[in-house]
């Protein structure tokens, strides 16, 4: 889950080695994290992720994500939705805010990278430049610093 929160989207090899012995809840959570939601039993997931799985394709995700009290669960849910190509700009911004407010550098850089890529794809040069400056700041590449 922590790997996914930092947008490491490949399946966890450590879990794969133990999957055959995992209980149904652990297997369901692994399927959720892996983006394999078809036929997944929602009630087997941790409570905070059940609402995410219940979202319809047209339903806004940001209110469900914002209601999550646990910042790690929120980032995991954001990443799971991103993996499903169902995370919009407000959800991405919420992920950036969550990682930033927790001081989690690796997830923050990953989510800022998503925002940067989207700005570039949209042709928003000013937004992309602003995001690149923020990334550089987080990386310690600010003028006057080596």
Secondary structure: elements and pairs:
Layout: H1 2-5, H2 13-18, H3 24-33, H4 47-54, H5 62-66, H6 71-83, H7 89-102, H8 105-121, H9 125-139
Describe the structure.
- With 146 residues, the protein is an all-alpha fold.
- It has 9 helices and no strands.
- Helix 7 (89-102) runs antiparallel to helix 8 and helix 8 packs antiparallel against helix 9 (125-139).
- The protein starts with a helix and ends in a 7-residue tail after the last helix.
Brief account:
The chain is mainly alpha-helical and 146 residues long.
Which terms summarize this structure?
single chain; 146 residues; mainly alpha; 63% helix; 0% strand
User: Averaging pLDDT over every residue, what do you get?
Assistant: 91
**Helix and strand element order:** HHHHHHHHH
> What is the rounded Rg?
16 Å
Strand element count: 0
Q: State the distance separating the first and last CA atoms.
A: 34 Å
Q: Low-confidence spans: pLDDT under 50, at least 5 residues?
A: none
- Portion of residues within helices: 55-70%
Work out the helix count. Answer: 9
Main pleated-sheet profile: none
Q: Based on helices, strands and strand pairing, what is the structural class?
A: mainly alpha
């Amino acid at each position: 889950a922590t790997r996914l929160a930092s947008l490491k989207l490949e399946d966890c090899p450590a879990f794969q080695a133990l999957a055959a012995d995992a209980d149904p809840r652990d297997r369901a959570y692994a399927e959720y994290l892996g983006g394999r939601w078809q036929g997944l039993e929602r009630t087997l997931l941790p409570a905070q992720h059940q609402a995410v799985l219940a979202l319809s394709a047209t339903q806004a995700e940001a209110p469900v994500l914002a209601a999550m009290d646990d910042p790690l669960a929120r980032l995991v849910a954001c990443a799971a939705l991103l993996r499903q190509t169902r995370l919009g700009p407000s959800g991405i911004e919420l992920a950036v805010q969550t990682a930033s407010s927790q001081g989690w550098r690796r997830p923050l850089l990953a989510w800022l990278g998503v925002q940067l890529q989207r700005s570039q794809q949209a042709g928003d040069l000013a937004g992309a430049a602003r995001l690149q400056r923020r990334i550089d700041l987080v990386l310690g590449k600010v003028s006057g610093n080596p």
